[in-house]
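All the exercises in this workshop are built on plain-text protein records. Sequence and backbone structure share a record, each on its own labelled line. The structure tokens are whole numbers drawn from a learned vocabulary of backbone shapes. The record below serves as our worked example for the rest of this section.
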Amino acid sequence: MHQAIPTVDGIPVVHFSAPAPPAENNATDAKTLETARDAVGPAPSRLWLRMSAAWWRSLQYAGMTLHFLAPQRPPSPSFSKTIPSTISKVKGEFTLQFYVPRGYEAAVAGRTSAKFPAVVNLHGGGFTIGNATDDARFARFVLDTCNAVFVSADYRLSPEHPFPVAVEDAADALLYLIRFAPELHIDPFKLAVSGFSAGGNLAITSTLCLADHVKSARKSGRHIPAHRIRAVASWYPITDYTLPRALKRARSTRPDQTLPETLTSLFDAAYLHPPDLPLSSPYLSPSKAMDEHLAEAIPETVILYTCEWDMLQQEGEEFAMRLGREPINKVVRYKMVPGVPHAWDKSPDPTKPAEFSEELYRECCEHLRDAFASA
């Protein structure tokens, strides 16, 4: 496969330039990072970060418009719901986009009593850019292969809402489906969570956050309906913020194909705030979570994909292998996609889908379908 220009969520990043955030630590043998200050350095103003994020969001919108033009055109959401945040201390609201499978409308009309599995999806974009509709191509395979409702969350973005708001919104999206499953015609015992890039991190960390929230709620006597999350599907996630970006880039098999420093520095400065934020938080770096936490909170089935040329490839593979070993013992379906950079599947080519993307989307959804069908 040949791809000269790396992209992230539909943006060809090499040919664009923007005012650069502070440079990454270029010492490839640097020690692990402890706080956001270690990763970001002298932080730019939050106002500057907002302006820069807005600029990149406009580019991302253009790239995704081209991405959606390639045949077969992806579906559009059937309906949306704007819900209040309940877990985060930063109160607000965010929107869920619902894509529904065959037979759903008949259930809504009362012609059947069917209950559907559901997949909560978290989009990519460094926690800073992106929209809930970005993964509509993947949604088509969830609808067709799993006959499940696909619920994609427009979680609140940084720098306006830095860590941990995105994690808490992602957990809140799951909690909303659990609480309102009967009205939504969803089977609360057949849930899964998926995500891409930053959303791949959220797919993992949201299950940790939700499990902790449910445990706390039940201890205090608050009712959380019975439910079961069967699987997590994480695509090229970041799992460890304690490793310097320069080190990750240097150990990539194709450093020239990794995301540029301009973009990764913006993402980190926007999301990793305040400066004393500990980077080993399991809600930020799930690879730093205790075995007991992962064993208890992560669903039984873990589906994880990495990209060969991605700076995140090695940490993603190591995390997948850890989840499958003693004492965690999850059922791990792991694959490294050869010869592709980070977010290759969001190629802005309007003539055809990215190579391998549809085959792997289908494979992932077959694993999800099997998880829903398990005892």
User: Anything to note?
Assistant: Confidence is low (pLDDT under 50) at residues 14-21. The radius of gyration is 19 Å.
